[in-house]
Amino acid sequence: MEKIISQEERIRRAEEIYYRRRLNNNNVRMPSSQVKQGRENRQFSLYKKMILQILICIFIYLIFSLIKETNYIFSENVLNKTKEFLSVDLNFTQISAQIGDFFQNNKDKFSFLTKWSGGEDSENKEENTKNIENDENKNEQIENKNEENNQQNNDANNEENKQEGDNAKEQTNSNQQENNLENANIEGEQASITQEATGIGGSKENTQTVQVAAKTTIEKTQMEIDAEYIKKNFSLTLPAKAKITSPYGKREPTEIISENHQGIDIGVVVGTPVVAAMEGTVSVVSNIGDYGTHVKIVNKDVTTIYAHCSKILVKEGDKVKKGQKIALSGNTGNTTGPHLHFEIRRDERTVDPELILSWT
């Protein structure tokens, strides 16, 4: 009669086979007591896991009960504050403008950024400094020449007075007249020296040479000639109808404001439409440099520039018509406040826009 093996006995035998294979020794037989002990250990570990899971569930239940009873996190006050915060309408354009003003007002603190990204500006600044120094040296040479001529004439007059007596008076008068004419010519030469002018708002992007006519001449200046040429050959309109806040020419310099203003500043708020003053081709659309976001339009040898914009509505290569909307005014680049900088050039010589257009 075949012996019936219980389920536990089968499990025990299977475990013995498993352990023999694991020990890689077929001659060793695992004691049944040891097999039974291992089974009891596994059952005990299962009990431990079950108890741990029950404790975790109890802990989570206590946390949810505590939150529900205290009613703090989802209290009415907290919900009202959250709704109030979400209802605030944030004006990101105004915030970005304020951040830009902050960086401009603290430009010295962030000078390392401008040095890293503005290598061209520093080179232009060095060139401007050298040109100004050269002009100063020319002025000093002319003044020295003037003084030497005066001294030589005075010495000659004194010697002639000693030798000729009364006749020397007439010679002295004639020498003084010649000296005055020579000094007048030297002053005219000095007044016509070219001066390097930096751009609007302290811009170093495009420096221009401005001819200063001598006060004694009645001939037209180069700027007046250029203005008449532009009015005769081109048709221009106002880029924006508003008051001029800073005219063309000399002004009181600061860390931001340049001494020589290459164009005019038109006082408009951020977002005011800007139209093309004349027809032409868009040659430059950029946001690099002290001009900020700007656009240049070229028509033959005349260029118009629109600087410190918040957005440009055309792209390089576009053909634009006079009066076409090309940009929105802004407060970008090196500025003291929102405005539109408008500039007119002929062959890279700047021209006062008020000599061509009327803002009255």
Can you walk through the features of this model?
The chain is of the alpha+beta class. Among the domains are: 117-193; 219-355, Distorted Sandwich (Glucose Permease (Domain IIA)). It is built from eight helices and 14 strands. It has helices at 7-22, 32-70, 76-86, 92-105, 111-117, 119-164, 167-191, 222-233; strands at residues 195-197, 208-210, 244-246, 249-250, 260-261, 264-266, 273-275, 280-286, 293-299, 302-312, 319-320, 325-329, 340-346, 349-351. The protein is elongated, with a radius of gyration of 44 Å. The model is unreliable at 190-210 and 212-216 (pLDDT under 50).
Keywords:
alpha+beta, Glucose Permease (Domain IIA), ten-stranded antiparallel beta sheet, 360 residues, 17% strand
Largest sheet: 10 strands, antiparallel
Tell me, what is the CATH class of the domain at 219-355?
Answer: Mainly Beta
Distance between the termini: 129 Å
Structural class: alpha+beta
- In terms of DSSP E residues, the strand content is 15-25%
CATH architecture of the domain at 219-355: Distorted Sandwich
Low-confidence stretches: 190-210, 212-216
Q: Counting H and I runs of at least 4 residues, what is the number of helices?
A: 8
CATH topology of the domain at 219-355: Glucose Permease (Domain IIA)
Average per-residue pLDDT, rounded, comes to 75
Radius of gyration: 44 Å
State the order of secondary-structure elements, H for helix, E for strand. HHHHHHHEEHEEEEEEEEEEEE
Q: Any idea what the CATH superfamily of the domain at 219-355 is called?
A: Glucose Permease (Domain IIA)
